[in-house]
Specification:
alpha+beta; 3-stranded antiparallel sheet
Length: 156
């Protein structure tokens, strides 16, 4: 994620473009420091949220809440970057699966895939009351994930 974000940032700087997200602005604040982005990414990946973002820097003797009023913005920017990279990876994996797939009589590629789904809440097999889950589709020839779909029982 960081490598691709840095490549995009470098491409914007090389082209002289001034349009882009606030991540690339010249404004100096706590969100401009890579340590804060790394901290937020690590906490997000571990399932932590706003409270931990306030506690951990204090325990590390860093500034008291260095990202005040910017946590939500950073989470949104980081979340969008994660989704973008995820879509790119899935598209690349689908292309790899197509290359490995034979051509059918109609001239089209015939990929072979497997699909599985799960719900987040563990049960005894007779309870179906989990509110969230996901469905994953893998290419049989490449072994790579080519589609991923979150599922929710709640209206969002």
């Amino acid at each position: 994620i960081c490598r691709r974000r840095n490549e995009r940032r470098q491409n914007e700087q090389d082209s002289g473009s001034t349009t882009g997200s606030s991540l690339y602005s010249n404004r100096v604040n706590a969100t401009d420091f890579s340590i804060n982005h790394k901290l937020l990414l690590g906490l997000q990946l571990s399932g932590s949220g706003r409270t931990e973002v306030k506690i951990i820097p204090g325990m590390l003797n860093l500034a008291n809440n260095p990202m005040a009023h910017r946590i939500t913005d950073m989470q949104e920017e980081l979340g969008l970057a994660i989704l973008t990279v995820g879509r790119e990876v899935l598209h690349e994996n689908l292309d790899k699966e197509k290359v490995l797939s034979p051509v059918g009589m109609d001239g089209r590629k015939n990929p072979s895939v497997s699909n599985d789904a799960r719900w987040d809440k563990r049960g005894a097999g007779h309870q179906y009351d989990s509110l969230s889950g996901c469905s994953v589709m893998n290419g049989n020839r490449s072994g790579l994930t080519i589609e991923l779909e979150p599922m929710s029982m709640c209206c969002i």
